[in-house]
């Protein structure tokens, strides 16, 4: 058997060339090519790139401001809850103690005990959530 290998000179293989770049502007050779094809195109590309960059800076600044507002609002809500919960707890404990002093030992003791158990539960629950 006599097999001939195909002659590569008579059967050229097609080649695909690819070029890519990172960043807002093309490489200098390509950039000059835009100017050759359309005078003023390079300047227009630069202006568009600058405008896009300014838009991104403005958008990032607005997002940062909104995040700060959200954090501050969340902090205010948590502090309000702590203050209201503290006032309510102290009111219940004082009321329970007054009831005990006036001779209503069962009712007063129940109010004080249930308030303290509730506070302990909130404390344990908040510690558990902070760990996860």
Number of strands: 0
SSE topology string? HHH
What class, by secondary structure content?
A: mainly alpha
N-C termini distance? 76 Å
Structural domain tally:
1
Query: What is the percentage of strand-forming residues?
Result: under 5%
Rg, nearest Å: 37 Å
Largest sheet, in brief, is: none
Mean pLDDT: 85
Helix content: over 70%
Shape: rod-shaped
Q: Would you identify the regions where 5 or more consecutive residues have pLDDT less than 50?
A: none
SS element count, helices: 3
Description:
It is a single chain. The chain has 3 helices and no strands. It has helices spanning 28-37, 41-101, 105-131. α2 runs antiparallel to α3 (105-131). The chain is 74% helix and 0% strand. The chain has one domain (28-131). The chain has 132 residues and is mainly alpha-helical. It is rod-shaped and about 110 Å long.
Would you kindly provide a brief summary of this structure?
With 132 residues, this protein is mainly alpha-helical. Helix content is 74%, strand content 0%.
